[in-house]
Every structure is written in C-alpha cells, then in structure tokens.
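re: ur question from earlier - yeah i can do the single chain one, its not a big deal. heres the input i used so u can compare w yours
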Amino acid sequence: MAYGVVRTDAIKATKAGNIKSGRYYVGTTPTAIDNGCIVKLDSLISGERDLWKVVAPGAITAGNLYIVATPEIIYDETLKSSGALDKFQNAAGANITLIPLEVGDTFSISDDCITPINDDDDIPAVGNYVTPSATGVKWIEIVASSLNTEVFRGKIVAREVYNGTKVLNVIEMEQVR
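and the output i got, formated as tokens:
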C-alpha cells in the first residue's frame, strides 16, 4: 500500500521555526495518518505543554490548519534509495510534525494526498486548486469556477516526477486564514 508523500519545497515555517507537534485523533482514538494530509489543531493534549490533539478540518472554511510533514524514518536502507517514501505512515498514537502554511508557500504532495475530481483520468490537474475536505484529512481538488468559500486553498502549479518513481503535485498557497 502506498502512503502520502510530502516535500516542503519553500515553506516559510521550515525556516521560521513555528512548527508544532501533535497526534492525530478520530474522536478519542489515536489514528494513523499519512504525510501530506491536512489537519486542524483541536487542543493541547492533557498533561502536555506543546503536544496538540489534531483532527480532520471538518469544513472547507476552517482555519488553524497544518500540513503533516513528519521526517520519514525508514529502517530498511534499500527502500530509501529506491524512492520508497510512500512506504512510510505516521503510526496511530505517534507524535507528528505539523507545519503551518502561508500565502506564497510552495510544497509538493503525492496523488495519495488528494481526492481528485471525478473525471476521465482521476489525476489532479495543473491549474486546478486544492482545499481541505469537509469529511477527512485529504485535500480535495476543485476547479476555478467552483471557488467560493475556501479560506484555505492552494493552486496546483506543476506535476513532476520525484526520484524516478513518484508523481508529486507542486502546490502554491493562494489563500490562508
């Protein structure tokens, strides 16, 4: 099974240091999550001073959102050299790295992180937009004519092959609130 891959190309937070740590929950259950997914800060975990409970955004108009970008730890060195970052998933209950996004930030995510428009090829298209899903942690693809209440969105500006095996969607954030 392939999991989401994220590349933090040009995100201001990676230099500014305002990155947070969290654990992803569905209800009260710690749950596994892919890198590249989008989550919302919920509350500090009881007894912790800088570890957040994060949940699915729940709405396309949600604020206080972060992209999951935990450094991949792959113990099998042969997998690293073959570009197998899609074999890594953040385990249920594991601490994850959360990066805030700002207007102008550029990052890349694999197709596994996006629910594409249901069209002939079901592949995200350059020129379309991504925004948080109202029902999960994957981004959803929308076309320009469908933009309305999205306060958090990015534009797919390119698709490129990463390490010869994985296609990544290069996204530039256009609106963040």
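The first strand starts at residue 6 and ends at 10. not sure if urs matches, ping me
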